[in-house]
Design a protein that fits this description.
By secondary structure, the chain is of the alpha+beta class.
């Protein structure tokens, strides 16, 4: 490749692709070209950083080949186009972590485009870069390892182009150092490794600038994640306001922030900043830092955390994305994803034994509530058994409205109390 990966990716946006971006973002062509100039280096550096992680070369090599095979550098059918845009966005969110929206904000500010357009450009940049990587790998017959060496060199040659050089009229808030967030690190945990996204570095030059950036980052992250990523929000995770009458079976960490969905009657949890669990069996899961999956995995993998065999009300972890149809034992379709994730985690810890607990709110007949909670716990247990977990490793028990985690006086409180939980009995 005579030109750099970043410049080739930049030039890959033909007039047809630019027109497609214009139609999708309602921004003018010149502004989008300016945004691409700043977003492409970020995407390239993020991908270059990913190859340093576990299975990184094989992952990026495969994604590149898939992107090139799908002709992502050419206008695609609407359905395929939407799929790749979603993949690009998920990839950039995973690689940049909580700096994703801060980076998008800087792109938007520098190019004078809206935040949705900046996020769309970041996604398109990642997809285009993958297409170029796939094309180059095929033409040069690169293996995953040789591709990784080349991509690392390409990433190392880049300097940030996010923010123009400060000048006399630059406001202090936007004159932060022009650094692309360094990709996160892979940290060993138990039998696997966990990808921890990077955190934005503090700017010691101005306490005012730091405070402004921190507050804005919190606002952007919370605002976005409360309504996006299939109710798997990221960013800073504030604990829900003080809860009264919390029984011993529930800790403050179990009453996480979120929102009540009046349409479904469910409580949508804030599951924290996105990260990637890399399990010992080679599989990965994209989850939130405070999600059920990550909390369960950390407990099982961390030798310093032990099962409390005396107080059996301790150690319960609420499922945050498992729901049932109203007043029934039928799981909603989206619930199977989290149950499958939990089953995958349990498979990597074959000695573990867990218990599933079912709970209801306090409205209605207590006996019927107990029976409903019992059947719901068994339904979740059988679902995971059907996913490959030995029945001898799973127990199920219903508790009705006995162990509420917040008063049942509001629809939100009742939604929080209608839940399924899991407790590790043996590691």
């Amino acid at each position: 490749m005579e030109q750099s990966l970043a410049s080739t990716t930049q030039f890959s946006f033909s007039n047809d692709l630019l027109e497609q971006l214009v139609a999708e973002t309602q921004e003018d062509t010149q502004a989008l070209q300016a945004a691409l100039k700043r977003a492409v280096p970020v995407a390239v550096q993020a991908l270059a950083g990913r190859v340093a992680g576990p299975n990184g070369p094989a992952t990026i090599w495969k994604l590149g080949r898939e992107a090139y095979g799908a002709n992502v550098l050419e206008p695609m059918a609407a359905e395929n186009h939407a799929v790749w845009i979603d993949r690009g966005q998920a990839l950039m969110q995973g690689l940049l972590g909580e700096t994703y929206h801060f980076t998008a904000m800087r792109v938007a500010t520098a190019a004078n485009v809206g935040m949705p357009a900046a996020e769309r450009v970041l996604s398109a940049s990642a997809v285009a870069a993958l297409g170029v990587i796939g094309e180059h790998s095929q033409e040069q017959n690169l293996t995953p390892e040789t591709m990784a060496v080349w991509l690392t060199q390409e990433g190392g040659q880049l300097t940030s182009q996010l923010i123009p050089e400060p000048h006399a009229t630059t406001t202090p808030e936007l004159s932060a150092p022009a650094t692309v967030p360094v990709p996160g690190s892979w940290e060993p945990v138990g039998g696997g490794q966990t990808y921890m996204p990077p955190r934005p570095a503090a700017n010691p030059q101005s306490s005012i600038r730091w405070q402004w950036g921190a507050l804005l980052l919190v606002a952007v992250v919370l605002g976005y994640w409360f309504g996006n990523w299939r109710s798997q929000p990221g960013g800073i995770n504030p604990v829900v306001a003080a809860v009264t009458a919390v029984p011993a079976s529930t800790s403050a960490a179990d009453t996480r922030a979120g929102r009540y969905d009046a349409t479904t009657g469910n409580y949508i949890y804030d599951t924290g900043q996105p990260l990637i669990l890399h399990l010992a069996n080679g599989t990965t899961q994209k989850v939130g830092a405070t999600s059920t999956e990550n909390r369960l995995y950390t407990f099982l993998a961390d030798p310093t955390q032990q099962v409390d065999s005396v107080n059996r009300t301790k150690g319960w972890i609420n499922f945050d994305r498992v729901y049932f149809e109203p007043s029934s034992t039928t799981l909603t379709d989206e619930s199977f994803l989290q149950l499958r994730n939990v089953a995958g985690i349990l498979q990597t810890f074959p000695a573990s034994v867990v218990k599933i607990g079912g709970y209801t709110d306090s409205t209605g007949n207590p006996l019927k509530n107990f029976q409903l909670s019992e059947e719901r716990a068994k339904t979740a247990m059988l679902a995971m058994a059907g996913m490959g977990i030995d029945m001898n490793r799973i127990q199920a028990k219903g508790y009705g409205g006995k162990y509420f985690i917040t008063p049942n006086t509001t629809p939100e409180g009742r939604a929080l109390n209608r839940r399924i939980s899991i407790r590790v009995l043996k590691k």
